[in-house]
Amino acid sequence: MIELPEIKRKKPRKPYKRPEAVKLLEQLAYEADRLKYPNIRPEHLARRSFRDDNANSLTACIIAYCKLKGCFVSRLNNTGIYRNGKFTRSTSRRGLPDILITKGGQSIFVEVKVGKDRMSQHQEAVRNDQRKAGGLYMVATSFEQFKAWFDTLS
Questions:
Q1: What's the rounded Cα separation, in Å, for the pair 76 and 13?
Q2: Do the Cβ atoms of 141 and 113 come closer than 8 Å?
Q3: Which one in 4, 6, 39, 114 has a CA-CA gap of 20 to 30 Å to 152?
Q4: How far from chain centre, in Å, is Cα 66?
């Protein structure tokens, strides 16, 4: 009889618990949708759901919140691409942040870091350059942290 190797199972993740700030974002988005679509009955509007447990979803939360607050916001994609089997680097400056925001004429750079992710030397150089130029720079690790910081800005 053939002996099969023992299967190693990963530990299951803890269930995601939506923070209060994310719940507030969902409510703000719903209220904005009700204003945007006044002819649709509220019970027929699909509620948007957000989460902040990975980098992509945290970035989406930050972008949605800033748009709802009337800011200009843009997500930067500065990764390279594969073409014909070869990697082509991006032509943008290395270390640029994940999100650019303009609020009341103030330039804000936001770098999203979740889990064990850390800033590179290029990102630290961009942070220093932004601050020297009079702009704001923030490293966001959760939506609650970002919202608390952002709401203190005038």
A1: 30
A2: yes
A3: 114
A4: 11
Distance of CA 133 to the CA centre of its chain: 24
Mean pLDDT of the chain: 92
- pLDDT above 90: residue 89: no
Alpha carbon of residue 119 to chain centroid: 15
* Domains of the chain, residue spans: 20-152
CATH class of 20-152: alpha beta
Say yes or no to pLDDT of 23 above 80: yes
CA torsion angle 154 142 129 87 (round to 10): -140
Residue 91 has pLDDT above 80, yes or no: no
Q: What type of residue sits at position 42?
A: P
pLDDT in tens, 137-153: 999 999 999 999 999 99
Q: Which residues of 19-34 are buried (b: 16+ CB within 10 A; e: fewer)?
A: bebbeebbeebeeeee
**pLDDT of 14:** 86
